[in-house]
Amino acid sequence: MRGGLVVRRMGGDRALLLAACATALFTTTLLAALVGYAGSVTREGLRRTLAEATFDSSGTRIAAHVPAGGFAATKQRVERSLRRIYRDVPLSVSAGMRSDSYTLPGQERRDHPDLTAFAGYTGIEGHARLARGRRPRAAGGGEVEATLPSAAARWIRAGVGDVLTLRGRIDTDDVVRVRVVGLFDATRPEEYFWQGDRLITTGAERLDYTTYGPFVVRPEVFAGRFTATGADVR
Prior knowledge:
Layout: H1 2-12, H2 14-52, H3 55-58, H4 71-86, E1 96-98, E2 102-103, E3 115-121, E4 128-133, E5 143-149, H5 150-156, E6 163-168, E7 175-186, H6 198-202, E8 204-206, E9 210-216, H7 219-225
Parallel strand pairs: 3-9, 5-7
Antiparallel strand pairs: 1-3, 2-3, 2-6, 4-7, 6-7, 8-9
């Protein structure tokens, strides 16, 4: 009885029924649109937030010991994995490489010599300005071209055009002739790119041994010639 009564009453007022259905349909459509809009806004907001975030809040740092000649393949695997994880989230990857220690010239016979190291950075051109000279090339002839932080050059009294012979601290048979072709300064020493590395921002690092430098070579030269002790990835 009640069911029939309701049907008859609804049937008797078709305009009201159609209006109610239209309102319900409109509401459902609006809610669906709002959900889609919210998802779009959330994704776009996430992209903007990550793009503008600092390395400390959104970066990923990966460190590894890489044998000489193996850096390119390792970096490629890391980049591929990161892009698969982050998908369409904005992502930029940079790498910093540091070699094992070398003894500064004239201190090879000391029990506690001053040391230096070689380094390579992808994208360094956007984070350091040349003070003198030029950037290194992939030179041949038994020499490696490198730039030095200006502060390190003052510490070890090296200048543009100088050629130094450096002997490995661990592997004493590892001898490198390096030509200084330029001096540089970090544009913003505090930025994520340098990862708080005082050696490159101040030219000296005093721990158990004092290390000056580093001698910065082209990334492909580093990857083919030296043993990397770390790679910073963003």
